[in-house]
Amino acid sequence: MNYKKTLLMPKTNFPMRGKLPTQEPKRQEDWEDKHLYEQLTEKNANRPLFVLHDGPIYANGDIHVGHALNRILKDIIVRHRSMDGFNAPYIPGWDAHGLPIETALTKTKKIDRKKMTVAEFRQACEDYAWDQLENQREQFKRLGMIGDWENPYVTLTPEFEANQIRVFGEMAKQGHVYQGKRPVYWSPSSESALAEAEIEYHDKRSPSIYVAFTVTDGKGVLEAGDNIIIWTTTPWTIPGNLGISVHPESDYSVFRYEGKRYVVASKLYETVTEELGWQETEVLTIVKGEKLEYVVTRHPFYERDSLVMTGEHVTLDAGTGAVHTAPGHGEEDFFIGGEYGLEALSPVDDKGVFTEEAPGFEGVFYDKANKMITETLEENDALLKLEFMTHSYPHDWRTKKPVIYRATKQWFISIDNMREDLLEAVGRVNWQPKWGETRLYNMIRDRGDWCISRQRSWGVPIPVFYAEDGTAIVEDETVDHVAQLFRKHGSNIWFDWETKDLLPDGFTSSHSPGGTFTREMDIMDVWFDSGSTHEGVLAEREDARRPADLYLEGSDQYRGWFNSSLITGVAVTGDAPYKKILSHGFTMDGEGQKMSKSLGNVIDPLDVMKQMGADILRLWAGSVDFQADVRLSDDILKQVSENYRKVRNTLRFLLGNLADFDPATDRVPVHELQDMDLYMLECLNDVIERAQEGYREYVFSHAYSAIHHFCAVELSAFYMDVAKDLLYCDHVDDPRRRSLQTVMYDMLVAMTKLIAPITPHTAEETWEYIAGADTEFVQLADMPEPAVIENREELKQRWETLLAVRNDVLKALETAREEKVIGKSLEAKVTIAVTEPVYHLLLELEQPEKLFIVSQVEVQKSETVPEGHSAIVDVETATGETCARCWHVKEDVGVDAEHPELCGRCLAVVATYDLADLEA
RNA sequence: GGGCCUGUAGCUCAGUAGGUGAGAGCGCACGCCUGAUAAGCGUGAGGUCGGUGGUUCGAGUCCACUCAGGCCCA
């Protein structure tokens, strides 16, 4: 007869394969329909708050794998903390202002900015931003993220803008805000500043000139009358020249030509003299660049000094090694000039025409002035050579005309007067990894002032008014008023309303006797937007708190959000807006190289979710050491899928074998558990402790490996393999079986909870199948507590010894298999010789053959065992008949005539079943 | 060029405060099972711990340099 029907085989509808790509979206809909997030916050309402403050994502484009990594990590934290005794809200954030949106709009959509007002254009930007937000929101939800998706924070909302204005006002009040000059890309043809992204390079024909600057004070290194030679392709910037830069580490040659002395970098001496066509030159001496610092030369045609400075930016691959420096006409020039206290002289107006600050050239277009200036240089005997060359030069991407560097008035945040406070605040923050502190510290220590002006449209206006005499008005009264207006009407009014309507009623100023005012048209750097989230979100919302417990972003944000938030936070509250910074690395390809379209090694998270499922991507994120850079490739995903399968099948096996187990009635108390089951409960305790520590300390890979290792090694390869015989063959109510199931049930519940933060879809799916699960969603349950077990150490040692014996048995069985003595292990009888203490352990086992999954075991004492082994194992064919039901080879098979194929044990079990029922 | 970081088996990770032979899982190879079956089990082969040179009785673990990657600046 077929006794298979009398076996208690695993029974479950939990599918072996998850079909994640199609199942996950349904589950996500279910979460939404049943308001899982609201249920969660309600349930945790009275628990301590844990605020993970979300850094805003820029509202443009599809999410990439970096976003996915960042947000999955955050979701793991939120989900875990929510199950670990905290109220952990998640408010997703979007950065919705800024140039990329302007660019996307003008580029992809057919919008002609020139035909619309600023306010209209800004409205178009806002519409676009909301569309992008919607798209990204769906993609994040597809990742399985839990959070307040209906009420995210968005930097373009009136409340947020109002708060941002207040941050600005507070900083102004404390004297951190000032107006200064700084060179920016300027397009005379558009009469506006351009961003880097609006520049394209084309070939341009330019004059190339060598100019001599005569030394007036050689500082004991050079002689008055010596001539430092510079080279430039923009003669028109000579009126703005205030200095000459040399490299401190390079050598400079002083040489004689036709009675005059000249200076160039030694490395370029040959090329320069050749270029100038000078022969019979004579090198007189060589000076290191740093010695030339503070040498004074005379401007070639103005009555003013030109100072020699040293800078690392000076290169020796072209020119003379002495660089013409005009702080108002170049970024590097500006910075080095700043170090030496030079002003950003920029005698050019909006149209690119020289002002009276450039005597002799007033009213001349800069490009036209090139010739005049060159002639003036020649008249002053300073021009050594003129020729023309074609080179790559920045152009306005819209008008295709060349652009220039021009210093304009900008608003700055002064870092100098708050640097000490910032550095101290850095010291009070908890950093993970530890080096984050050094990194941000160095950055704050070395950073210059923060230029917050942007000559753009799509952003928060700088709330400054100007009086008739040009005085800037930044007062509490005006700033607060603007903030209130923005909160009510949005910031578009800044561009729509009359200036007087933006000022408080009856506002007057002694600087405006006529009572008229104008307003600043620059907007704020978007880093000011995101840097204000602690005010606009943490301080504003009921479900948040400042300082946040945690900020978690990619390591690029030390320069970005961590930085800007610190500055505004310290200014507004006196301290950092975060208690802890956790940072993650970047996602590289399988070889550790950065992903790029051209290399074709980019992995799209949307594809991964479509093909494998969000839980696979999440499991990847949970498995890697994210504090350094992480790798992602098809092979890595394949491996993650394999590991997922292992965990999933383990859960499935547990479910299947608990089909007849009702925890309410079938549970066995801990003190009545079989020893092996108790040991496994102890193993579960271990996993719980390790996984919990991994989650709590933000080392998810430890939680992941603890869970996976437990499934693969402890459960699948050992416990469940051994348990099958008892589960299948024993009587349903056999206490040994119920003991097993009790532990398996606890394992199932605990494991489902433990995987929930990383793979919520799979966890919730499993939860649905668990009989007696007391919450609707596992997310609403709490993390498992380790069971109370006595003599844990002793228990562990006992079983570790037994498992070591088992290893030796398995090896011996494999050898026997190779020698064709046996096939499956149940065909074997093993003789195990062990030392005294182990001998007793084995004897204490009621049925040692179960542990080794063999049919018969004989235990012997041995004085010694070979080094590295626990036992001497001999394998032979078991004696007797194979029981048709339990497949063990037994001597007592056939004792009952009615069931000649059964062993005594199976006979007893079968006797309790109504076989007729089973046949039917 | 500067600041910070990473580099242990094909892959993902462990390697405690320097000290018995460098580990795990996955993958791979070979085999078993066919009562977890597009599953399960076993055994095995894989590493000059990026490289070089030091410190030390002894270094994957400390120091210097170097190579390769990465983030942020210039």
Structure description:
- With 920 residues, this protein is an alpha/beta fold.
- Among the domains are: 3-15 and 634-790, Isoleucyl-tRNA Synthetase, Domain 1 (Orthogonal Bundle), CATH 1.10.730; 205-329 and 359-392, Valyl/Leucyl/Isoleucyl-tRNA synthetase, editing domain (Isoleucyl-tRNA Synthetase, domain 2); 802-919, Isoleucyl-tRNA Synthetase, Domain 1, CATH 1.10.730.
- It is 40% helix and 18% strand.
- The chain contains 30 helices and 33 strands.
- The strands form nine sheets. Strands 7, 8, 9, 10, 11, 12, 13, 14, 15 and 16 form a ten-stranded mixed β-sheet that branches.
- β21 (465-466) and β22 (472-473) form a beta hairpin.
- It is elongated and about 130 Å long.
- The model has no long low-confidence stretch (mean pLDDT 90).
- It binds one RNA strand of 74 nucleotides through α11, α20, α23 and α26.
- Oligomer designation: single chain
Mean pLDDT: 90
Main sheet: strands, sense, barrel:
10 strands, mixed
State the CATH topology of the domain at 3-15 and 634-790. Answer: Isoleucyl-tRNA Synthetase, Domain 1
Report how far apart the termini are: 13 Å
Number of helices: 30
Radius of gyration: 39 Å
Which percent band covers the strand fraction? 15-25%
Query: How much helix, percentage-wise, in residues?
Result: 40-55%
The number of distinct β-strands equals 33
Domain Zinc finger FPG/IleRS-type: 880-908
EC number: 6.1.1.5
InterPro entries: aa-tRNA-synth_Ia, Anticodon_Ile_BEm, Ile-tRNA-ligase, Ile-tRNA-ligase_type1, Ile-tRNA_ligase, M/V/L/I-tRNA-synth_anticd-bd, Rossmann-like_a/b/a_fold, tRNAsynth_Ia_anticodon-bd
Cofactor: Zn(2+)
